[in-house]
Structures are given as C-alpha cells and as structure tokens.
Design a protein that fits this description.
The protein has 543 residues and is mainly beta. Helices cover 6% and strands 32% of the residues. The chain is built from four helices and 35 strands. Strands 1, 2, 10, 11, 12, 13, 14 and 15 form an eight-stranded antiparallel β-sheet that branches. The protein has a seven-stranded antiparallel β-sheet with strand order 7-6-3-4-5-9-8. The two termini are 23 Å apart.
C-alpha cells in the first residue's frame, strides 16, 4: 500500500538529514548587491567580432508587456561587479535550478556576487517590485562553451533554497517538431526595447517569433558563425530600425524561447543593437544540450559538488557515506545504524536540491528521510523484489519511484515533487527474472532516465528511457555487457562529474570498480574500469 506522507513517523532508522547547503547570503546582503548592480547592469560584455565585421552581442524589441502569471518561471539575474555589473534573464526549471546562457555565467563568481529574483514582472530595481531574492549556491556552464563563437551557450545556476516560482520543463532530445520552420515560439525578457538606448525594460515583455530553418540561419550574412545543431534562429528579418522589428536584444540574454510549454532555446546572441536589416536573434538549441543539462538539474548529492556520492552499509548495520573525488572516494563518514534496512537509496523526492534517503525496513515500510525526519510513504512492501528511484522517468521533471512486485510486474509511481505519488502505472511483467535492477540518471546522454538490469549468467541489459509513462516508459532491452565476475552493483549517478551516469561493480573478493559512463547505448556504454579499492566485501547494501 502506498500512502501520502503524514509528517514524522516513529522509525527504527536514523534521520541523517543531509544538508550541504551553507553560507546562503542574507536578504540584506542580497538587497545591497541588487542596488549596486542596478547602477550599471545593462548587459554582459561584448564577445568577439564576427568575420563579417559586425559585433555579436549576447542580446525584446517589439512585443508586449506580460504579467508574471503568464510566465511564472521567469527569473532576473543580476551580477554585481562595480562597473562590470550586468543583467541576464533565466528560467526556473526546478525549484533550485535556473537555466540561462553560459556567456552570463562563465568566469563569474555568482555565489559571491549574484542575485536571482523570481515571482515578479517588474524589474527588481523598481521600488515595491514584490519579487523574491535568492543567492546562488553553485554554477555550471557547458564545458565546451566558447566565448569566441558562443557555441554551447548554456548554463545552470543552483540556488541554496527552493523558490516558489513554478518551474517550466525543458524540451526533449528527440524533439524535432518544435524546430520545424514556421513554428510559433515565444521569447520572454526584460531586455532593451530600443536600438537607440541601453535601457532595459521595467516590465517583463514577450514576443511571438517564427522558428527558422537551419539553412535560413546559415545563409544570413554572418559568414559561418551559426552552428547547425547547436543553435536555432527565430523571428522575421529585422527591418533596420525599431519599427517593424521584433527580436530579442541586450538584457534578454539567457532567457527562454518557449514552444508548447517547454523551453526550446536560450537567448544567446545577435547583431549589436539588434535591428540591423535582415538580422535574426540566435538561441542555444536546447534539445541538443538536454543530455548535459538534465544531470545538472538532477545532480543532488551529499556534499553538493556536482559528483554523486556512494552509500555503503556494513553487514553489522552501520551505514557510511563515501564522497566522490571524481575517480576515487574520500574517507568514509558514518551515517548511523541501518541494521533494520534492506534497501537504501539516495533521492530528492521533494526537489529541494538537498540529498534525501529512501530506505525499506525489514518490516516492509518504505521511509523517506528528509529535513531531519522520516516519513512513511509505503507499507507492506516487504515482498517487493526491487525498489528504484532513478529520477524522472515520465518526463514531467519530477522524480519517480519504481517497484517490481512479487509477481515480477514493474510499476511506476509518478512523483508529485513533494514526497507523494500519483496513481501507479504498469510498465510490464517479467521483471522478476532480474537479480539486480539499478538506475540513477541518464546512461545514454539523451536526458532521459534509464535502467540497468542484470539477468542470468551475468548479462547486463540497458532499458533506455523514453520520458513516457506506463508500458511505453522504456525501449526494448539492449544487451550491453556480460559481467559474471561481480556480485554487487550500484548506480549512484554521475560519480565523475562529467554529466554521464556511472556504474559501480564489486567482485566476490571485495574489489570495487568504477565504470565511467560514455553516453552510448551499446556495448561501449561504459569506459575502461577504474579500480576504487579492496575490502568492499564488508558491505552488503549499496545505495
């Protein structure tokens, strides 16, 4: 029986209350940063020149004002650095995650100098704007971002606490419909409203623009600066002046281009002053970067460093945390006595960006440890063969729970983002044949949650996620490895910190190996193994 949480419950298990977030700035400090940034925050510094001789500018002229209710996920990003202060847009894609452009993030210290404002259509420099201010805890930009070409111009900021703003999902890696030429898209931002001055808008604006073909974008007189597959351009050709032009402009950088309720582009660059005749605005093509972005959205780990950590329980019952150093682990830290547990898994069911723990007791209760309390979310699950919390299986950006019952049927319990679940849906039967069912994140690089199952004779199968619910949740299995020499496995997530889900395997003699993920859905799914160490036979549960 699955039940809704009802607060803390008596439990034989500890409540570790993982809480890595420290040092969040006070509201007074954030207000001071904001006021300082507001004096000069107009736009990011200009990048390199194009071969055609024009200056590209991370850059809504035209369009109309719109209330925050029409785009509750919009975020204002102020960076305070004296005369180098600037302003960018962004979008809330999870309660603690802001999607923006890499040119707004790369080389900056957002934790010390940034302010994020959500929940208002008024620019936060306006008195009585009514928005909520947040600091920044961590920052990530695409590792292949180029400041010279603005290729791979995408980034994620992690906030120290969840915001109340409603998130907007990003598009899928296999989305082609949203990029069909002529598709109507909407761009949002507080950027410049005129090519003749640098003033950014005091009120949120939106504009409807058509998506253009790659050929149209490439043929535009820019001499090859448009990177097919990584960029998309939108809008009708600029008129050469404000009148007749509808386009993103300076200050809109990092803001979203939206189709069908999902982000398909991030404002990246365009011609300086935005209205040069024939020009278009260019966006980072989100479908091409989902495989890199989603792991950063679902990168919850114990110490908050972008690398997944490992939990291992001794046969005596003591649970230890091993923090990842990338290809090795730091010294272990005791979490407590978990002798009454027979399943221990890391998760973040309430999407607050803080590591939680899911454990099943020997009595069949499933407990969710979060914020220092244990909440019972299920009972009578002692006969369930497998429990997995791999992330977002159904494609709604909320973490789900999977279970294989005693009859071998696999069920999805769609998460509601608060520790409760919608009615379960059945994936199929026959899953009882597997001795191991593991998953935490994306093994194939498409931004969708996958599973690894171990069958007879050590055969390891990949079930590639589709981002759908029910019987369509996973593609047909693919044999990726045959591992007969291991007797324990763990899928903790992205241990190496490269955005790809990794795997751990232990021999009966106690040697633990790390198999780095490659993002390939073939026998090359994992790179050459790395020896972690010996003595791991003392542990009988990994999570």
């Amino acid at each position: 029986m699955l039940m809704a949480p009802a607060g803390a419950t008596a439990s034989p298990l500890p409540t570790p209350g993982f809480e890595p977030r420290v040092g969040a700035p006070s509201q007074a400090e954030l207000e001071a940063r904001l006021q300082s940034a507001a004096k000069t925050a107009e736009r990011p510094a200009k990048p390199a020149r194009l071969s055609a001789g024009a200056t590209i500018d991370p850059k809504i002229i035209g369009g109309t004002t719109t209330p925050i209710a029409s785009a509750p996920w919009m975020a204002q990003l102020f960076y305070e650095d004296g005369d180098n202060s600037f302003f960018c847009g962004g979008a809330v894609i999870a309660p603690t995650k802001i999607l923006t452009a890499a040119h707004c993030v790369k080389g900056k210290d957002w934790k010390s100098k940034g302010v994020i404002v959500t929940g208002t259509e008024q620019l936060a420099t306006t008195a009585g704007h009514g928005g909520a201010m947040s600091g920044v805890w961590r920052q990530w930009n695409h590792p292949s971002y180029s400041s010279a070409t603005l290729d791979n111009d995408i980034a994620v900021l992690t906030l120290p606490e969840p915001v109340k703003a409603e998130p907007i999902p990003v598009t899928k890696s296999d989305d082609t419909a949203s990029y069909t030429p002529g598709t109507s898209a909407t761009v949002y931002g507080w950027g410049r409203t005129s090519s003749t001055n640098d003033d950014i808008s005091a009120t949120l604006r939106r504009a409807t623009v058509p998506v253009n073909s790659d050929a149209t974008c490439a043929d535009w007189s820019l001499g090859g600066e448009f990177v097919k597959g990584h960029m998309v351009c939108a809008g009708t050709p600029a008129s050469g002046q404000d009148a007749g032009t509808v386009t993103a402009c300076n200050g809109d950088s990092g803001g979203p281009l939206v189709v069908g309720g999902r982000i398909v582009g991030v404002v990246s660059w365009g011609i300086e002053d935005c209205v040069e005749k024939g020009a278009y605005s260019v966006y980072a093509k989100v479908s091409s970067f989902v495989g890199a972005v989603v792991p950063r959205v679902d990168d919850t780990n114990i110490n908050g460093d972008h690398r997944a950590d490992v939990l291992a329980r001794r046969t005596s019952g003591e649970l230890f945390e091993y923090a990842s150093n990338g290809t090795s682990f730091a010294g272990r830290v005791s979490v407590g006595d978990y002798s009454d547990a027979n399943v221990i898994l890391q998760t973040d069911l309430n999407r607050d960006g803080c590591q939680d723990l899911l454990a099943r007791t020997t009595g069949g209760d499933v407990l969710w440890s979060h914020d220092g309390v244990n909440t019972k979310i299920a009972s009578g699950w002692g006969s369930r063969k497998h429990l997995v919390v791999p992330g977002d299986v159904t494609g709604d950006a909320l973490p789900d729970l999977l279970s294989v019952d005693s009859g071998g049927a696999l069920w999805i319990y769609p998460g509601e983002g608060n520790g409760t679940f919608a009615a379960r849906t059945k994936v199929g039967t026959g899953w009882g044949q597997y001795s191991q069912l593991r998953g935490h994140g994306d093994f194939t690089g498409d931004g969708k949650t996958d599973l690894i199952a171990r069958g007879s004779e050590g055969k390891m199968y990949l079930y590639k996620g589709t981002g759908k619910a029910g019987t369509a949740a996973f593609s047909g299995r693919v044999l990726v490895r045959t591992w007969g020499g291991y007797n324990a496995f763990d899928a903790a997530g992205d241990i190496t910190g490269d955005g790809k889900a990794d795997f751990l395997a232990r021999t009966p003699g106690g040697t633990l190996y790390l198999y780095p993920g490659t993002g390939k859905a073939t026998s090359e799914i994992f790179a050459t193994r790395i020896t972690i160490g010996t003595g791991w036979q003392q542990f009988n549960i990994f999570g």
